[in-house]
Amino acid sequence: MRLSRYFLPVLKETPREAQIVSHRYMLQAGMIKQASAGIYSWLPLGFKVLRKIEDIVHEEQARAGHIAIQMPTIQSADLWRESGRYDAYGEEMLRIKDRGGREMLFTPTAEELVTDIFRAHVTSYKDLPLTLYQIQWKFRDEVRPRFGVMRGREFYMKDGYNFDLTKEDALHAYNRHLVSYLRTYERMGLQAIPMRADSGPIGGDDTHEFLVLADTGESEVFYDSEITDLKFGDREIDYDDQAACQAVLEEFTSRYARTDETHDQALFDAIPEDRKRTARGIEVGQIFYFGTKYSESMGALVDDGKGNKVPVHMGSHGIGVSRLLGAIIEASHDDKGIIWPEGVTPFHCGIVNLKTGDAEADAACEALYASLTALGLEPLYDDRDERAGAKFGTMDMIGLPWRITVGPRGLKNGVVELTSRRTGESEELPPEEAVAKIAKIYEGIA
Does 187 lie in the same domain as 155? Predict the structure, then answer.
């Protein structure tokens, strides 16, 4: 993409309404624009990152054997009355009526709706196990929406739901989701720590939430520092292997890690003093096992193969797709702007022409652009007739991981400058070697 043809409304001034780094930088980098309190339009750069995150989530859900569907954003209140949650959910639920006076609601979560789908089509244990998921817009009417996409009213979320014959099978689904989420977050350049959590209005006794450590996190967290040394890495896990999934769960949850909601001071005190840590954390996902809470109340029954009709065991699993943008920025930035991990960057690298209009510099930039594009990479070429400082400032703010700088002086020596946004380190290379190095960096990134 040529920046002269792209819509990138970068702000020069710091937005006064932005209280945290991610909100400020998303506004300054031209990623979002507020439409009303807690509701945002996603501009091209922000939309590209949102889609990158969504693609990773879809790929990892498919790897785990889960099946995508799409449910509506508007639900009937009658379904929620069946489960008993309509009156209990609270004022965060946006309740509305259609022109016929029927009570409806804007989806905050979809346990009832997906259970209704299941009970209409699945009647036998032979069709189990089954996990359905969607990535869809949700709405929760926050009293004080703040922090940009971190705590907005409208948000983009992956919500998944497993249906299993027995509790044992459902707990395997729980473990499978935990493993899947670990891989998902690492692909985004994040270390998301699973922590024992409170189930809230979803219900159930078994639940873990995933938190990214950041100074601006809303939750206080207490943890054993050993947990931050754990990496999922490139290990291959057979998601049907219950023992393997259980082993990963135990590896990542055996060390103490809790939010202030479930913190146990006695357990924390048992950790060696040099490993005790307190910090702030941002929640980016949560998994639940809630048994037959919805299947019993809504009649989601299957034949168990022994002539009995039994309620299925269920769980739900969420990832805050839009919230993840804010979390990534909170975890990866400096005083110049965003620093995108390679897995979610909107463009693979930037090309900066220091002297637009110079025949040699223009030709070299065009050749770099063509070479990178031919390799399946997506560069952002700053071909604007702007001073060099403005071009560097834009590239730093939008946070592309790599930048190739082209100028007449370097070209006289047959080189361009390749710079890492994360470290700030630069090296001079022939143009073809710079292209090869960028291609090599992204070679192992799915």
Answer: yes
